[in-house]
Amino acid sequence: MSNRWWEIVVKCEPVMEESVFWRLEKFGCSGTATEIKIWENENNVESQSALNEQILIRTYIPEISTQLLDLAALSLWLEQDAKLLEVSTPEAKWHLIDEEDWATNWKQHWQPAEIGDRFLIYPAWETPPEDSEKIILKLDPGAAFGTGTHPTTQLCLESVEMRLYSNAETQTIADLGCGSGILSLGAVLLGAKKAYAVDTDALATKTCRSNCQLNEIERNSLIVADGSIEKLIESGEIFDGVVCNILADVIVELFPQFNQITHDKSWAILSGILISQADMIADVVEQNGWTVAALWKRKDWCCFNIRRSEY
Ligand SMILES: C[S@@+](CC[C@H](N)C(=O)[O-])C[C@H]1O[C@@H](n2cnc3c(N)ncnc32)[C@H](O)[C@@H]1O
């Protein structure tokens, strides 16, 4: 049976070879190989003839075992390793290879899973039980992120459950970087008044819309739009809660605009953040007048529960 693999290519200085191999092995890659390449050092104007020897390390990991967020984390770890060795930052690139039979294979591996106390995530192609006490959230994530298998999604959905525990029907939610829509769907299924989901990836918003239909969500209860925080600002809505599971660097960029879409008692859930990036996020949160209420961790990842008021 064939499936899709990520081909990861790291270009780095030869001195990093061992540490890159170790890092890739720890990440779960197999079949790692090195090619020696010599590039002209275009940045070195003074010595036009100087050559910059770099190596290419090529490796593979099944798509089923990793997600884009993990690959971004890998890239960050490589950058940190290079800093420790005091060499230039390696360039890591990845792409998917071989699509044959992928969907079938992936569907066999993705099974229904409980998240938090209330949710049972069900693949669209399976028949959910009729007598479950859980809220059944049906998903066909397609190519979008958000099956519920990633720790950051789980942490966010558990936080949404906690936030909406007693007052769901009063809450309007923004889902910034919605992917499959799992977080805003979860909020609406918990009884939230309304949710707005945005994503810069048109495939994600398309998937989110079809997941709304799958879960029989009324059109006005979950609005989906292509774009980012500017779409939420344009909506003119002031949100009681914002969920945002994107990479830390993107959160840092977007967070100063959170005050334009929230009121002074709003809350937010931030994830997609490596534990090593928590201090950076806490600083940005506090600099913008928000308070960190709780920090949850799972594996290498963390999730911030924050609020605008001080109490
Ligand atoms: C890690 S996924 C999260 C998906 C889902 N919310 C979850 O928790 O599983 C991040 C999503 O954010 C989207 N994204 C990345 N940068 C963005 C930005 N600046 N504004 C809006 N969405 C963005 C990506 O396309 C991706 O679908």
From TrEMBL:
Pfam families named among the record's database cross-references: PrmA
Keywords: Cytoplasm, Methyltransferase, Ribonucleoprotein, Ribosomal protein, S-adenosyl-L-methionine, Transferase
Molecular function in Gene Ontology: protein methyltransferase activity
Listed GO CC annotations: cytoplasm; ribosome
Ranges in coiled-coil conformation: none
Domain of life, source organism: Bacteria
Entry binding sites for S-adenosyl-L-methionine: T153, G177, D199, N245
Cellular localization per UniProt: Cytoplasm
EC number: 2.1.1.-
Catalytic activity annotation: L-lysyl-[protein] + 3 S-adenosyl-L-methionine = N(6),N(6),N(6)-trimethyl-L-lysyl-[protein] + 3 S-adenosyl-L-homocysteine + 3 H(+)
GO biological process, any: methylation
The keyword Transmembrane helix is assigned to this record: no
InterPro entries: Ribosomal_L11_MeTrfase_PrmA (IPR050078), Ribosomal_PrmA_MeTrfase (IPR004498), SAM-dependent_MTases_sf (IPR029063)
Function: Methylates ribosomal protein L11.
Family indicated by similarity: Belongs to the methyltransferase superfamily. PrmA family.
Protein name: Ribosomal protein L11 methyltransferase
Organism per entry: Waterburya agarophytonicola KI4
Gene: prmA
